[in-house]
Write a structure and sequence with these properties.
Radius of gyration: 48 Å
Keywords: Coiled coil, Membrane, Transmembrane, Transmembrane helix
Strand order of the largest sheet: 1-2-4-3
InterPro entries: Extracell_DNA_Util/SecSys_Comp
Number of helices: 3
Number of strands: 4
Helix content: 40-55%
Protein name: Type IV pilus assembly protein PilN
Strand content: 15-25%
Order of helices and strands: HEEHEEH
Largest sheet: 4 strands, antiparallel
């Protein structure tokens, strides 16, 4: 068996001892250096990746721009078509209503009275704007550019008797369509009494609904 003898003084006998503080200090410095180097590598790399991603996003936006423009054009075209369809339906409904109203006149016309003419028109009221709205912008105003809706009907005809004209005017009043009726003209003619009655419609919507019943 061999023995190892250290003949140095006790102050110099440090073999096998470890300086823990120095070890922790070296480890901390190593970690700090490694972190600093890592940050120096991470930030430029991250900047490079983000720059490439931003450039790719810009390219994708540029490629999608024509598609977006086409979609917007299609959306506008769809809105225009929906507006045109709505206007067509309104016109069709009004024509159907007026057709029903005119057809229903036969049931209220006396046997000795004949209608020779019928005029449906729009009379501009005092203070009414040319665009179709009312002065002051009331609740019943219509959008600018919308067509003027009929508010006056003129009946022209011939009757054998004066009483039949009065009966016909009374029947028109009972329809509930007209706000008021005026006998504008009556005169003797070759075939009887020529007359002209002007009827002023109530509010357009209500008059259409009432007229549709007849």
């Amino acid at each position: 068996m061999m023995y190892r003898v250290n003949l140095l003084p006790p102050k110099l006998q440090r073999e096998g001892t470890i300086d823990v503080r120095r070890l922790f200090l070296l480890a901390g410095i190593t970690v700090l250096l490694a972190g600093f180097v890592g940050l120096c590598v991470f930030f430029p790399l991250n900047y490079f990746l983000m720059k490439n991603e931003l450039e790719l996003t810009r390219q994708q936006i540029a490629e999608l721009e024509p598609v977006v423009n086409r979609v917007q054009a299609l959306r506008k075209e769809r809105q225009d078509l929906e507006k045109a369809v709505a206007e067509y339906r309104t016109i069709f409904r009004e024509r159907k209503t007026w057709s029903s109203f005119i057809s229903g006149l036969d049931s209220i016309t006396p046997v000795d009275l004949w209608l020779m003419g019928l005029e449906i028109s729009h009379r501009q009221e005092p203070g009414e704007r040319g665009e179709g709205g009312t002065a002051g912008g009331g609740a019943g105003s219509r959008p600018a550019g919308s067509p003027d809706r009929p508010n006056m009907v003129v009946f022209k005809g011939v009757s054998r008797t004066l009483s039949s004209v009065g009966v016909f005017e009374q029947h028109l009043h009972q329809l509930g369509v007209f706000e008021r009726l005026e006998l504008k003209k009556i005169s003797a003619g070759d075939n009887g009494l020529n007359f002209e009655i002007t009827g002023y419609l109530r509010e357009v919507c209500s008059s259409y609904q009432q007229a549709n019943k007849y």
